[in-house]
Structure formats: structure tokens, C-alpha cells
Amino acid sequence: MRKTKRLLTTALICMLCILSLNVTAFAAMPDNGVEPCYDNISTATLDIGYFDDVGLVTASATKQLGTIKMVGVVNVYESVNGEWEFVDSYANESTRGSLVVSGEFEATLGKTYKAVFTISAMDDTTVETDVLECVKTYN
Length: 139
Known about the structure:
Blueprint: H1 2-21, E1 41-51, E2 54-63, E3 69-80, E4 83-94, E5 98-106, E6 112-122, E7 127-137
Antiparallel strand pairs: 1-2, 2-5, 3-4, 3-6, 6-7
């Protein structure tokens, strides 16, 4: 009986030691998503809005310290029979802290539009590029 108690006690202690080495970690996803870590691009956003048959696309990006220049291009597409047809393109560049690219396009009620924002940010040695997409239906 003593031998059994000792064996069970030893087994229990071993199990507790093994279980204490097993650590589970959980991470919460922020409400606004996860932003990539770049050397030159700090943040980037893209949105499409509609008002009186006019679509407005607005894209913005901020740069990190040391970034010399940022260039942004927004292409707008309309969904036609399951295919994306080109509507318009807008571009801008900046050597300041932020970049904004915006434009208006003719929108048709019930149609779906996609905006694609391509950002390139340069420092002395590298060029970083990121692409954002936004798809919205004009209701």
C-alpha cells in the first residue's frame, strides 16, 4: 500500500511538472485588423463612398521616419458580368509625412466597384510596395 501511494504521488508530481511546461498563448485580433510592419510605410487606408451617382475613392498613407518619397496609384474597376472593367485611375506623390490620392467617378446604382491602391515608399536603399483593395456596391 505504501509503495502504491509513493508511486501514485511520484506519478502525480511528474504529471504536474510536465503540465507546467506546456504553456498555451492566446493573442487577440484588434478590431481594426493587423497592419504590416514595414520600414518605410507606417499606415495605409482605402475607402469608396457614393453620393448622387458619384463615387468617391480616397486613399491615404503615412510614411516612417527616413522615408524620402511615397507614390500612390488608385485604379477603379466596375464589375460587369463577373469581370472587372477599368473605370479610372488617380495618382499622387509626396515627400512629406503623408500621401493622399482621391478621385471621383460616375457610379451607377446597384453596380459593384473595386478600388486598388498601390503604394510605393522609398528610402535611401529600398523601395517597399503594398497593395490594398476595397470592394463596395452602390446601394
